[in-house]
Amino acid sequence: MLLGLTQRDPDEKALSAIEIELHRRLFWSIYVLDRMMASSLGMSPALTDNNVDVPLPGLTLEEFASADRVYYTMILQTSRHVIQLRRLEDRILQRIHLDTASPHTNRPTLLKDIRADIENWYSHGCLISPMEPDNVPIHNSITWLGARYYFLLILLYYPTHFNSSEPIISQTELLRFTQKHLQLTSALFQQNQLPLNKITLFRLFPVGVVILYSFINWGTESMPFPARNEISTLLTILDAFSENWKHAHHAADIYRQFLAIIDAAPDLGALRFPQPFVTTPLEGGQGTNRGGLRSLFTNLLTLMQDALGKSSCYRIPNPAEESVVSSLEMTLVPQEPLFNPMPSNDFPTAYNAGTGGNEVPMVDYEFRSLELDFT
């Protein structure tokens, strides 16, 4: 901000075209990194953009005249698409999670507008994604695009006070978004395209919270909890972090205990807690499961707070601390998604996501002159 990066250079006429373009790329690189960290941590961004007057990056004359113009154009399209992704994440963070002062009288309209922008972002990404399955950059792959799409939907409908009344989607639909996100993330992991870094770890926390929260509120007694395989996927990814990643392995221990509770409770619908589930123990052996869930949820929220920070907006009220958990419950409301980028029963794996069964080399994360993608 002090360097004036958010504004056009007042002496722009005295600068060369390359210098002007590099100024723009520097700002948008900082913007993308800042918004990526903010959405991963669930905190306000450090770089304010209220009065930004910097055009999006473009091609220099040298790049346009180069024999590699097609390559530079593809990188430019991808970078602009990633910038739009970070803008969407920032909008959701600011309007859904961090804005506690404004009245929510227009909540359905706001959610509908943001959802439409998410669908448009995904559709545009499909158009610029190369058709050839080989050597596709990670930010151009359908798998990465789908994973980011479903993460946006998770953030949009995350169980916050903003989404606590008159739910737009059902608890089942939110859980389905989480399942698809983890299935696509698993495909990236199997293709060696999922970096095991802080961003990946931080984003797994709200995803895991939604799964555990959904299990606590699962009210279909005749059906088993459908996300057991996704919990195993989450556990596999967390276990892949090296031993010095303490938060990852503590989270893995929590989900390992969670799996044990699921496997030990055939009648999962009886574990639903529509009221404060710390006051009335269940009858028989299920009381142990209830107490175990309370402990797991407390431990997960505490661990997430330690990893993301006490100010993270992803820390939802703990049923063990709240007098009424139903204030955040999402009533089952049948509703089909506006747009489904992946068939419900056809999720990509390392063998059907365009890899032909061959292992894809580790993605190259070296930042080049026009690449503003990061991760």
UniProtKB/TrEMBL annotation:
GO biological process: DNA-templated transcription; positive regulation of transcription by RNA polymerase II
Gene Ontology molecular function, alphabetical: DNA-binding transcription factor activity, RNA polymerase II-specific; sequence-specific DNA binding; zinc ion binding
Occurrences of domain Xylanolytic transcriptional activator regulatory (ranges): 7-122
UniProt entry keywords in alphabetical sequence: DNA-binding, Metal-binding, Nucleus, Transcription, Transcription regulation, Zinc
Pfam families hit by this protein: Fungal_trans (PF04082)
InterPro entries per the UniProt record, alphabetical: XnlR_reg_dom, Yeast_MetPath_Reg
Subcellular location: Nucleus
Chief location bin: nucleus
GO cellular component: a single term: nucleus
Name this polypeptide is given: Putative fungal specific transcription factor domain-containing protein
